[in-house]
Amino acid sequence: MTLHRSDPEPTDAAPRSDRSFDGDVLESLVMGDEEPSPRPGTARAAFAHRDFRRMWIGSFGSNIGSWMQQVVLASYAFRLTGSAAFVGLLGFAQLGPLMLLSIPGGVVADMVDRRRWLVGLQTAMALLSLGLAALVAGAGDPPLAALFALVLGIGIANALNAPAWSAVVPKLVPARDLPGAISLNSTMINGTRVIGPAIGGLLYPLLGPAWIFVINAATFAFIIGALLTIRFPVIPRATETGWRRVSAGFRAAREDRVVGRLLLVLPVFSFFCLPFVSLFAALAEIDLGMNSKSLAYGLLYAAFGLGAAAGSLAVGTILARVDKRLLVRFGFLGFAATLLAFGLLRAPAPAYPVVFALGACYFGTTTSMLTIVQMRVDDAVRARVMALWFMGFGGTVPIGGLVFGPLLDATDGTVVLAVGAAVAVGLSFAADLRRLEPGRVAVVG
User: Fold this and answer.
1) How confident is the model at residue 200 (pLDDT cuts 50, 70, 90)?
2) pTM
3) Is the same domain home to 64 and 193?
């Protein structure tokens, strides 16, 4: 399909903060009608902007469906094949395309009409989910190749969607409220990480996998509706051609020492420190003696997700006025301490508060890093720089899981997580961003 960029849509000089849209009830609960204007840079200030509010609520509904599908798909694939390797292969199909397609996705996002691009990709993911539903409903033993192909299609669409999405959302709020917007987005992702699997786990035995996939397809209507009704910000046209257009993200990272350093730190962190995310169930069984199908394990994963949501929300609330560079450096130290503590545990009870703290340090740190990057990147290359972010974050994590899985089989969680903790300590020094810009004022909301 040939893609053309349409003329920019008219937009106000700054996003409105009116309260005329149908989310006023939710806003009044979150913000309070009689309270003074929220402090700039906080989550409340970001939520006051109508277009951001619509996108956030639409994303919340859509992400619940996506997490429902992910948890049910993994369970269905294992029951179908009895192969953990095939389940891992499907997981790589979902995230692996981020490594290869983030940069092309960022280039395209800076060339085409982003509303049409995003609506098209969301529609494609909805149709592919319906395809999954038809496949599993129409055959008791569906072809594994067809199952893999549909999941890979979803992964490709998501990889092309991510850079454009991350370039649009920051422009729905003024620059002063960007830290709060990023904090709320991270909180939404981690909140739905808990809610979606919980709902999926309850409905799976009642409805079966096909209807879960249908429900997920239906939830894309939330975000498509938001994309069709918000005012898209005017984005400067990309002026580069050929290789300069492709390499613009790398040049921007090289020219800004702080952005470049964070984009180097991120893949190291993802590869060495985050394999526990892919291996969470195995760590619980091997080290803690938990059955990964039990309620106790479900609560353990929920504690981790709630901690991640709390950590990301804290960046835009109680820590909104703290220098984000300090949050990054000390966040790595907190992550190292809690990761090592998790690796040393051999009893389930103390694991709940430890994984809550681990999740908080994990997403508190990455949310602070993302805030710094987004506040420093120029709009004209934002999608291409964010493509590098997604390559280093989402694209590297599944590779780390593939590499460290055999090490876990040969040793135990203490060894695997100790490696990650040691690397995180080193990254706390590598990410001392104030040394790169002596005398620069604090990076706060």
Assistant:
1) confident
2) 0.77
3) yes
